[in-house]
Amino acid sequence: MPSYDDQTLRQLLDLQREDTAIIRLHERRASLPEARRLQEVQDLVAELEADLDIARKQNDEIAREQSRLEGEIELIDQKAAREDQRMMSGKVANPKELAALQAEIESLKRRRAGIEDQLLDVMVARDAATETVERLDSERSEAQRQKDELSAAVTRLTGDIEAELGGHSGARDEAAAAVPEELLSMYEQIRASKHGVGAAALMGGTCQGCHTKLPAVEAERIRKEKGLQRCDNCRRILIVV
Ligand SMILES: [Zn+2]
Question: How far is the centre of ligand 1, averaged over its atoms, from the C-alpha of 28 (Å)?
């Protein structure tokens, strides 16, 4: 390993600063609270849409049942009107026939009353179903509004991060170009196994990579010896600042 002067070694710290900034930005982009919230709201919208679909189908079914019952009542009314007319017409004189007609009219009235009871239940159910559809629809609109808002926020924040990343990537390439190849590859190797930190400053006798205070003698030796030094504790490249 050739010996490196202070200036060359310090360039490693510039490079490390950019690499650290890039890692932080990647982490920030991957863990935006708005993105997590957006996912939740997206799930909620999908859930509400499915619920709404079911509620609408139920509502339609009840409406069809209501129409069917109303149609039945109409038919009974028409039939009862015809029988009434026959009775009033005086054309039916036979007492047996008249009694049968009377009984038929009574039976129609009873059937009508029964269907009216059913219709009443169906109308109550329809009110409830309509209310459910309206409630779900308004919940869905609100969730959709939040989704749009969060989606815009995520796009904006991601764009800001991308822009920052672009800046740091440029600075990173520039800093890397100033570091000798062999030193750079050593830095990259350490960085790969040390949570992205390959080079750390030695400040006040403490390695800023692992935050361990070096024995005073060791810190003094590093300061005097200069050149390429590594932390005894974390093995990162130590740079005296
Ligand atoms: Zn260390």
Answer: 25
CA of 214 to the centre of ligand 1 (A): 8
**What was the pLDDT predicted at 2?**
67
In a domain, 172, yes or no: no
What does pLDDT average to in each consecutive run of 10 residues of the chain (241 residues)? 84 97 97 97 98 98 98 97 91 89 95 98 97 98 98 98 98 96 96 96 95 94 90 95 87
- Where in the sequence is the domain holding 73, given as residue range(s)? 32-167
Are 200 and 237 a contacting pair, CB within 8 Å? yes
Domain boundary (167, 196, 227) is at 167
Which position has the token pair 């390429």? 228
| 118 and 191 together in one domain | no
Instruction: State whether 98 and 138 are in the same domain.
Output: yes
Alpha-carbon gap, residue 147 to 145, rounded angstroms: 5
CA of 202 to the centre of ligand 1 (A): 9
What is the SS3 assignment for 204?
Answer: coil
What is residue 241's predicted lDDT score, i.e. its pLDDT? 87
Q: How far is the CA of 4 from the centre of ligand 1 (A)?
A: 20
In a domain, residue 157? The reply is yes
Beta pairing class for 212-213 and 206-207: antiparallel
Q: Give yes or no: residues 125 and 202 share one domain.
A: no
**Cα 201 to ligand 1 centroid, rounded to whole Å:** 9
Q: What is the pLDDT of residue 200?
A: 97
Contact predicate 76/108, CB 8 Å: yes
Instruction: Look at residue 56 in the predicted model and tell me its pLDDT.
Output: 98
CA of 38 to the centre of ligand 1 (A): 40
Flag whether the pTM goes above 0.85. no
- Asked whether residue 14 falls in the same domain as residue 45, the answer is no
Domain match, 111 and 75 both = yes
